[in-house]
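Duplicate of #3305? Posting structure anyway:
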C-alpha cells in the first residue's frame, strides 16, 4: 500500500507534464515504449504468417504460391473470402474498418483512441488475406496493429489525448520501420501520411519509436532491407526521358488504382456475400495462370531486381495485381495496399525498362533501375507522399546516386496522379468518400497538441449556492481564483464566479447588513454557465465543447475512483484563445 501511494503522485505528475506542448522528454519515453511494442507486434504478425504457411506452403514460405498446384492456389482465395465473410458478417459495419485509413480516421475524430474489436479483426483479416492468396500487403495491418497497441499504452495509463496522438504516430513509424528496415522512411511516412503535420516535439518521439521498431525487427530478421537491391546508378542523362515516361505511366496507373478502389454505388449496394464471391472468383481466375499476383509479392520484386521476369508476368503484375487489390478494397475487404503497390510499381518500371532497352539498347539503362524508380513513383503517386517515397527509395537501395532520378520520377508521378487523375491520395480519398475530412484547420491542429491541464485554472473551491458570512470568509482563506457554485437542483450544471466578486461584497458593510445569508447568485458580478470536459481532453476538444454547448467556460472532471468524480479546474474560452496567441 505505501508503494502504491508513492507511485500514484508520480504518474499524476507525468500526466500533467504531458498535457503541455513542450513535454518532449516525457513523449520520448513514450516513443521508446511504443517502438518496442510495435516492433514486437510486427514480428509476431510475421511469425504468425510463417506459422500458417507451415500447413500448406512449401518450405513454410507465405509467398510461395508459384509452387502450389493451379487448383490449390485458385481455391485459396475462395476459402479466404469465405473465412473473412464468416468472421465479419455478424459484426456491425464499423467493425470492418481497418488499416491505415482507420488509423487516420481515429486520429482525426477520436484523438487516436482505437477500438479493441477492430484491432482483433485486423489480426484475423490481415493473416487470412495474405495466406489466402488475395492481393494484399502486411504493412497496413502492421501499422493498424502497432498504432492501436501504442495508443493502448496511453489509454491504459489515462494519459492526455494529445499524447495519444503522438503514440499513434509512433506506432505508424515503428510499423513501417520494422517491416522494411527503413526507420527514416517510417518517420516521414508517419508525419506526412498519418499525422499530416510536422513539429519538432512530434518528430523526436516518432524518431525514437521508429528506431526501436527497426531494432526489434533487426534482432529477429537481421539488418538487411526488405529487398535485395543490386548496386544501381544512372548510366547516362539520355535515360531521363525514359524515366519521365515511366513516371507518367505509373502516375496514371496510381490514379486509376485510387479511383477503382473507391468502387461505385452500384457495387456497394450488392450484398456483402456476393461482393466477396466476386473478389474470390476474380483472384482465383488470375491466380490459376499467374500465381505471382497472390500474397504480398516481395519475391517477385526480388526476381525483377536480381533476375529476369517474363513480359507477360510483368504486365499482369503491373496492371492485374493493382486491379485485384483495388477490387478487394472496393468490395469491402480491408487488405493492406503498400506491398501490392510496390510490386506493381516495380513491374511497371521493369516493363518500361525492357521496352526501352529493346527500342534504344545503346541508351536505356538496365530494367532493374527502372523497377526501383517505379516502386518509389507508385508509392508517392498513390499515397501523395513524395518525401516518404524518396526516403524509402534511399534506405532500400542504400545508394545516394539513385536519389536524383528518383526525385524526378516521384515528382512526375505525383503531379500526373494529382493533376490528370484528380487523385488526392488513397487514404484521403477513402475517408472523403465516407464524408470524413481528416485535414484539420491550423487552429484546431495547434490546439490538438495540448491538453486541458496545461491551460486550466486549478485554484478553485466548490461551494453551495447559499452560505453564511463566516463560511464565505473561510472560502476566501485559500485565496481561490474561482468559486464553483453547485446548484440545489442536481440536474442543473454548476456555475463559476470569480472569487474577487465575493471578496468585494465582504468588504461592503452596507451590503452585508442586508444579507445575513449570502446567495451567490445575487452577488454583483458575472457568473458563467459551465459544461463538463474530461481531464484527458485536448484543447481542440475543449474548444468544440464550448462551441457546441454555447457556454463560455468548462469545468474539468477527473475520475479519482470508480463512480467518483471531482472538479480539477476551470477552463475558459478566453484562456484557450490567449494560449494559442501566446504560443503562435
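Output from current build:
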Amino acid at each position: 500500500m505505501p508503494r502504491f501511494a508513492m507511485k500514484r503522485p508520480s504518474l499524476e505528475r507525468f500526466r500533467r507534464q504531458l498535457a503541455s506542448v513542450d513535454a518532449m522528454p516525457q513523449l520520448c519515453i513514450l516513443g521508446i515504449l511504443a517502438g518496442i511494442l510495435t516492433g514486437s507486434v510486427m514480428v509476431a504478425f510475421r511469425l504468425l504468417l510463417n506459422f500458417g504457411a507451415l500447413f500448406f506452403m512449401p518450405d513454410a514460405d507465405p509467398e510461395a504460391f508459384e509452387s502450389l498446384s493451379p487448383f490449390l492456389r485458385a481455391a485459396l482465395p475462395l476459402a479466404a473470402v469465405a473465412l473473412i465473410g464468416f468472421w465479419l458478417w455478424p459484426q456491425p459495419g464499423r467493425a470492418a474498418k481497418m488499416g491505415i485509413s482507420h488509423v487516420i480516421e481515429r486520429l482525426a475524430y477520436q484523438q487516436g483512441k482505437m477500438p479493441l474489436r477492430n484491432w482483433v479483426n485486423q489480426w484475423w483479416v490481415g493473416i487470412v488475406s495474405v495466406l489466402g492468396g488475395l492481393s494484399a500487403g502486411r504493412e497496413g495491418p502492421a501499422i493498424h496493429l502497432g498504432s492501436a497497441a501504442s495508443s493502448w499504452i496511453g489509454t491504459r495509463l489515462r494519459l492526455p489525448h494529445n499524447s495519444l496522438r503522438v503514440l499513434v504516430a509512433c506506432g505508424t513509424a515503428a510499423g513501417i520501420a520494422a517491416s522494411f528496415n527503413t526507420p527514416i522512411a517510417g518517420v516521414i511516412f508517419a508525419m506526412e501520411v498519418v499525422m499530416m503535420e510536422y513539429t519538432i516535439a512530434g518528430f523526436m518521439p516518432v524518431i525514437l519509436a521508429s528506431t526501436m521498431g527497426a531494432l526489434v525487427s533487426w534482432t529477429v530478421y537481421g539488418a538487411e532491407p526488405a529487398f535485395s537491391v543490386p548496386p544501381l546508378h544512372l548510366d547516362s542523362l539520355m535515360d531521363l526521358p525514359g524515366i519521365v515516361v515511366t513516371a507518367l505511366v505509373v502516375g496514371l496507373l496510381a490514379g486509376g488504382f485510387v479511383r477503382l478502389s473507391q468502387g461505385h454505388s452500384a457495387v456497394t449496394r450488392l450484398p456483402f456475400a456476393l461482393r466477396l464471391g466476386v473478389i474470390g472468383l476474380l483472384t482465383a481466375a488470375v491466380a490459376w495462370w499467374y500465381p505471382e499476383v497472390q500474397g504480398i509479392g516481395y519475391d517477385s520484386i526480388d526476381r525483377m531486381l536480381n533476375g529476369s521476369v517474363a513480359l507477360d508476368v510483368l504486365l499482369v503484375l503491373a496492371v492485374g495485381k493493382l486491379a485485384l487489390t483495388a477490387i478487394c478494397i472496393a468490395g469491402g475487404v480491408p487488405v493492406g495496399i503498400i506491398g501490392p503497390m510496390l510490386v506493381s510499381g516495380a513491374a511497371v518500371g521493369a516493363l518500361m525498362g525492357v521496352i526501352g532497352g529493346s527500342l534504344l539498347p545503346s541508351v536505356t539503362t538496365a530494367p532493374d533501375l527502372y523497377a526501383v524508380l517505379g516502386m518509389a513513383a507508385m508509392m508517392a503517386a498513390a499515397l501523395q507522399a513524395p518525401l516518404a517515397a524518396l526516403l524509402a527509395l534511399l534506405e532500400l537501395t542504400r545508394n545516394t546516386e539513385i536519389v536524383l532520378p528518383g526525385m524526378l520520377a516521384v515528382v512526375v508521378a505525383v503531379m500526373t496522379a494529382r493533376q490528370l487523375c484528380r487523385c488526392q491520395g488513397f487514404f484521403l480519398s477513402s475517408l472523403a468518400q465516407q464524408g470524413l475530412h481528416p485535414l484539420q484547420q491550423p487552429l484546431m491542429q495547434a490546439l490538438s497538441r495540448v491538453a486541458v491541464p496545461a491551460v486550466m485554472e486549478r485554484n478553485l473551491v466548490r461551494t453551495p449556492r447559499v452560505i453564511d458570512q463566516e463560511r464565505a470568509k473561510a472560502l476566501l482563506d485559500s485565496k481561490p481564483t474561482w468559486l464553483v457554485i453547485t446548484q440545489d437542483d442536481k440536474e442543473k450544471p454548476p456555475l463559476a464566479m470569480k472569487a474577487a466578486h465575493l471578496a468585494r461584497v465582504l468588504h461592503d458593510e452596507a451590503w452585508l447588513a442586508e444579507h445575513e445569508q449570502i446567495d451567490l447568485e445575487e452577488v454583483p458580478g458575472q457568473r458563467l454557465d459551465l459544461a463538463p470536459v474530461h481531464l484527458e481532453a485536448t484543447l481542440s476538444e475543449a474548444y468544440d465543447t464550448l462551441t457546441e454547448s454555447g457556454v463560455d467556460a468548462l469545468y474539468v472532471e477527473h475520475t479519482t475512483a470508480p463512480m467518483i468524480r471531482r472538479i480539477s479546474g476551470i477552463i475558459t474560452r478566453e484562456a484557450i484563445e490567449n494560449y494559442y496567441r501566446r504560443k503562435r
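Confirmed duplicate; merging threads. Residues 1-8 have pLDDT under 50 and may be disordered. The longest helix spans residues 24-53.
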